[in-house]
Amino acid sequence: MSDGNGSAETRRTLRQLIVHDLRSPLAVVLGQCDLLAMRGNLSSADAASVEAIARAARTVLELVDRAGDMLPKTEGATPSSRN
After folding, report:
1. What is the pTM of this model?
2. Domain assignment of residue 43, given as a range
3. Residue 76 placed within a domain
4. Which of 5, 12, 38, 72 sits CB 3.0–4.6 Å from 77 for a disulfide?
């Protein structure tokens, strides 16, 4: 059986993974898509591909944010007790 401290540490680690380790690479992808789009020298097919990548990254970022919001931010908190 696991104790409360192990569960809290697991939640903290999972929250860190979701909030930082997934959001940071997604932010880089979105930033690069913006830079490519701003160049203005993409073919229409390439511009459509960049927009599709950005749209998918924004979708995943929204999912990551929602998942992070469901995890307790402080030790001992539950998602329903944070409101």
Report:
1. 0.68
2. 27-70
3. no
4. 72
